[in-house]
């Protein structure tokens, strides 16, 4: 970690310095382009000024020659006129090209071209009149039209030159500002580069000084982790693809009675299993590598001295970037004392269930007598009883029947705890539909709708799960009988290594603060006058689900219905 931090600082400092140098190079290049562009604009402006000055100069020369010719009639004075007309046209064309990107200058040059044409035409007319005689030429000159045209040309050329000078000044100012900004930025970034280099050096120096302390801290931490691993209150080990021990902690070695050298790389895990478990491990270990491990698997292992003790194993698997198995991470707990305690509890439960069964069975005889004598009394002496006597006799009969139902439920509850679980894979759709159809027979006069969603396959005892669905569906039908239309919805989904099943109804619901009482024996949230029952049905559901390794819970809202959930493992644990 320290090495990575050290390299990170070097890389960050190098990137920062390289970025600054790159920025300086790019800025210098862009600035040189701007400077070159400014020089081009200066040359452009000077060229525009040159052509404008030449046009004005040629016009002045032509006008001077015109005056000389008028006075002397000497044709040599016409040389500027003869040579200047064509040259002026060339200068005007150059001006148009140079200012083609400037709309105002283009317009001004068009006006200047028109003024120059009119000026040349006027001079030509004066010369033609002079060839006829002095008086005609003098009259034209006296109109001062030539002077006005000349003044117009001077104004247009002056405006043209002034705008070019203003543009040049603006461009030069922008260029100077950009150059100044670049200069300041260049100085600032040079200073920043120097500071970064100094800071990186100081940081690296400090990091190198800390590295020795960090290495020492890391060594101590590794020793502490190793101590926690070796002296944990449970055994830890790792197995490779073939089942050989790759790692094992001291706690597990002490449990087994072996040394580290005797186990790692030399023994397979099946070597410490009791002989009856070894074939099962060899068959299931490859599957466990793909499944990702197991959770709380019970088995028995053999110590070096030959003694056997029970353990609980849990593990996960480690894979590389390509998904290839590397090793297991396994936990082994010696649960000898727990197993003894569980055996005692199991024996007590068995005795309690036997007692419950015996008591329930023995209670049937006096109940039958009470029911029988009550019927005799009703049939033989009913006419002699008054209304109060008949009412009391009816109460005796009803309570005898209720007691009989309660005894039946107790017997069912007892049998659920004793019955052996025979698991198999099956889809519960058919089972649920069969249970619903049977229960619906006694509810023909009710409007009931069953919505059965996709049911995930279950690995459980079908006969016991049938009892679960009977109790849950009958419960949903019973507590929604006051609704105009009963809606029962059954769904399932996979969550992790469990399948969660849910049955919802739109019945009377319940207060969530009493939800913890729902799955206890004889606990009811509604009185028997509203809804019949003994309070054993949900307790049976809880016991069956718990024996399958699942959980039960419920959610509800008063007058809005209830949802009952239970989970089952996705599959029976594989051995590792």
UniProtKB/TrEMBL annotation:
Which chain regions cross the lipid bilayer?
A: 182-204
Q: Name one GO cellular component term.
A: membrane
PAC domain mapped to chain residues: 295-347
Q: What SMART domains does the record point to? A: HATPase_c, HisKA, PAC, PAS
Q: In what residue span(s) does the PAS domain sit?
A: 221-292
Reactions this protein catalyses: ATP + protein L-histidine = ADP + protein N-phospho-L-histidine
Q: Name one GO molecular function term.
A: protein kinase activator activity
Tell me one GO biological process term.
osmosensory signaling via phosphorelay pathway
Gene3D superfamilies recorded for this chain? 1.10.287.130, Histidine kinase-like ATPase, C-terminal domain, PAS domain
The Histidine kinase domain covers which part of the protein? 358-572
Question: InterPro entries recorded for this chain?
Answer: BphY/WalK/GraS-like (IPR050351), CHASE3 (IPR007891), HATPase_C_sf (IPR036890), HATPase_dom (IPR003594), His_kinase_dom (IPR005467), HisK_dim/P_dom (IPR003661), HisK_dim/P_sf (IPR036097), PAC (IPR001610)
Report the EC number(s), separated by commas if there are several.
2.7.13.3
PANTHER family listed in its UniProt record = BACTERIOPHYTOCHROME (PTHR42878:SF15), TWO-COMPONENT HISTIDINE KINASE (PTHR42878)
Q: What is the protein name given in its UniProt record?
A: histidine kinase
- Specify the species: Pseudochryseolinea flava
